[in-house]
Amino acid sequence: MTDVARSTSARAGGAAHAQQDRGELRLEHVTMIRRGLTLVEDLSVTVAPGQTLAVTGASGAGKTTLLRAISGLSDTDAGTILRPEGGLSQVFQEPRLMPWYSAHRNISLVVGGPTPDLTAVQWLERMGLSSAGHLPPARLSGGMRQRVSIARALSTDPSLLLVDEPFSALDRPLAKALRADLIALLADQDVITVWVTHDPDEAEEVSHLHLHLDGPPGTWRLLA
């Protein structure tokens, strides 16, 4: 277990019960058509707080399209997507940090409330980056940059987190370690997570529910 997982596990018993239920993520009879191709047809699935829905499928099967629809950046052609109350955050394939700001500032900029700097310090500590908060992204390793990205996403206390293959550019041992850290943090946060991945082993490890998209003509399978 990594340091992040250890520190999270020590607090998890009380933290999860302190979270307010902000509702489910519900996809009801969702159909998405792009460029004349039906990517998803009549999809219905419900994800409860604290659960992770893994989404797999071949390139072009509609994973990113579905993620955009859940985020509200893209429309569905039929059906309804009901999001939980509260904020939405995303962890991207690339960290997408602002290069002219420090790691600390990249986090504190997105944090609401009266103490954004304190929240940033706390999240840097949880991610094992206390000594790197003053550094700009260019002076951080790829793994450290992705840790800052994760901290930034979770520091806003989102009710819905969208994860788009954030470790695909990292070597396997580092990706495995960061994945374990993120799983532990999600257990502490009690957030609804939609996690897109090409890796079926990763999907099995992270998910409570596993949605596989077959692509055109829009068939899909709920595997767990």
Helix content: 25-40%
The helix/strand series, from N terminus to C terminus, equals HEEEHEEHHHEHEHEE
Architecture (CATH level 2) name: 3-Layer(aba) Sandwich
| CATH classification, class level | Alpha Beta
Q: Structural class, from secondary structure content? A: alpha/beta
Q: Per DSSP, what share of the residues sits in E-state strands of 2 or more residues?
A: 25-35%
Low-confidence stretches: 3-20
CATH topology, by name, is Rossmann fold
Distance between the termini: 26 Å
Mean pLDDT: 89
Strand order of the largest sheet: 5-6-7-3-8-9
Number of strands: 9
Indicate the topology.
Blueprint: H1 3-18, E1 25-34, E2 37-47, E3 52-57, H2 63-71, E4 78-82, E5 88-91, H3 103-108, H4 116-126, H5 142-154, E6 160-164, H6 172-189, E7 192-196, H7 200-206, E8 209-215, E9 219-222
Parallel strand pairs: 3-7, 3-8, 5-6, 6-7
Antiparallel strand pairs: 1-2, 1-4, 8-9
Helix pairs in contact: 1-6, 5-6
How is this structure best described in words?
This protein is of the alpha/beta class. The chain has a single domain (3-222), classed as Rossmann fold. It is built from 7 helices and 9 strands. The protein has a 6-stranded mixed sheet with strand order 5-6-7-3-8-9, with helices on both faces.
